[in-house]
Write a structure and sequence with these properties.
The protein is α/β, with parallel strands linked by helices and about 400 residues long. Helices cover about 35% and strands about 15% of the residues. An eight-stranded parallel β-barrel has the order 3-4-5-9-10-11-12-13, surrounded by seven helices.
């Protein structure tokens, strides 16, 4: 019988050693008004790093201007590297590692805000942007895949310890995986094998870029992916198909770990978050007429699912049983008992989001006292703050840095 890991012991993530098995999940910070690193963004990640996490994940670093979910997000380019290096240096000074979430938003991208064409498997209307995403051509797909490789090279230059390839939430790769969205009849549509080509191509390209850079500079970084186990939408990605995709990704040998997630940013985001659906607050983040539309149809978009600890564990155990690759459990990780449960079920790492937004020092406090309980109420009102400045409405954290 395998002895469960202690969540507070050091652990290897590919070539990188983390001081413990707790990762701050990628949660959009809304701290980059000029699409560049700010002191505010550094504070956002420095606080949980000082608070004890093994690694923090920066979200969301788009591989191209048109791959952003909105125009204020950072995208990989030479002008962004000095600020990102300042960010990684600050996190390393706290003793933590730092990962860059890289991806292309696909149909989730806000073409109006980005002032760039959005891409999707098929022509697709984004109601938040009030724009259509264009059907991606073969050249577009090749460009997006190559942009992921370039992003990995930039991440190495900026001092990151890992990159997380975004394959979830109906972003570009996930939209191709979805039989509901992907109605193509060419080599990228139809069978799961065809629909998985984009996701697998992204990961392979990133791995090749990392290995080539490591051979030259001796500075290897870990490569992980965020993968939907299910969209929570009828006709979308199913757990069975997601498991097969995960098996292919494992066989391809491009990943050091997979973070298991769920839900659709386009149709059903609450399938990931669970808890109270903040319809009023979400509507208030937009101007009319979109505000009125959200108030009228919000219950269809923001469906309520009861919160419970480790709420993605049931599906994640199916993946744990079939894969040998290290897995990161996400969803409802707020206390020592749940962390220990994840370790006992064979997971290698846990990822925390909202609980660390509420209390960036929670990990240190849990390590000092296993009876510590999170102040997060799962009200999810923090979801609406991503359109202004991401913070916890209960505790007010994280605080903004001066200037």
């Amino acid at each position: 019988m395998t002895v469960p890991h202690d969540v507070f012991t050091a652990a290897k993530l590919g070539p990188v050693t983390l001081r413990n098995r707790i990762i701050k999940a990628a949660t959009f910070e809304a701290s980059t008004p000029e699409a560049l690193v700010t002191d505010d963004l550094i504070t956002y990640h420095r606080l949980p790093a000082a608070g004890g996490v093994g690694m923090t994940t920066v979200a969301y670093l788009a591989v191209s201007p048109g791959g952003r979910t909105e125009g204020k997000q950072i995208y990989w380019r030479p002008a962004a590297i000095p600020g990102l290096r300042r960010l990684t240096d600050a996190i390393h000074a706290e003793g933590a590692a730092i990962s860059a979430q890289i991806g292309h938003a696909g149909p989730v991208a806000n073409a109006r805000s980005n002032k760039a064409t959005a891409l999707a498997p098929v022509r697709f209307f984004n109601p938040l942007a009030m724009r259509f995403a264009r059907r991606a051509t073969r050249d577009d797909i090749d460009d997006v895949i190559e942009a992921h490789a370039a992003a990995a090279r930039f991440a190495i230059d900026a001092g990151f310890d890992a990159v997380e390839v975004h394959l979830g939430h109906n972003y570009f790769a996930s939209a191709f995986l979805s039989p509901l969205i992907n109605r193509r009849t060419d080599e990228f549509g139809g069978s799961l094998e065809n629909r998985a080509k984009v996701a697998r191509g992204m990961v392979r390209a990133v791995r090749r870029a990392v290995e080539k850079a490591a051979g030259k500079a001796g500075n290897p970084i870990a490569v992980t992916a965020k993968l939907n186990m299910a969209d929570g939408v009828r006709g979308g990605i199913s757990t069975e198909e997601a498991l097969q995709t995960a098996k292919w990704l494992e066989e391809d040998g491009g990943l050091d770990a997979i973070e298991l997630t769920a839900g659709s940013s386009l149709v059903n985001p609450m399938y990931l978050f669970r808890g109270t659906a903040p319809i009023k607050e979400f509507a208030g983040a937009f101007k009319p007429p979109l505000r009125w539309g959200i108030r009228m149809t919000g219950k269809k978009f923001l469906r309520e699912y009861p919160y419970r600890e480790a709420y993605l564990l049931r599906d994640a155990k199916l993946f744990r049983a079939e894969l040998s690759l290290p897995l990161i459990l996400l969803g409802g990780i707020t206390n020592r008992e749940t962390m220990d449960l994840a370790m006992a079920e064979g997971f290698d790492f846990v990822a925390m989001g909202r609980a660390l937004l509420a209390e960036p020092d929670l990990v240190n406090r849990i390590q000092a006292d296993g009876a510590t309980r999170s102040l997060c109420t799962h009200c999810n009102e923090c979801m609406a703050t991503i359109y202004s400045h991401t913070h916890c409405v209960v505790t007010g954290s994280p605080v903004s840095s001066p200037g």
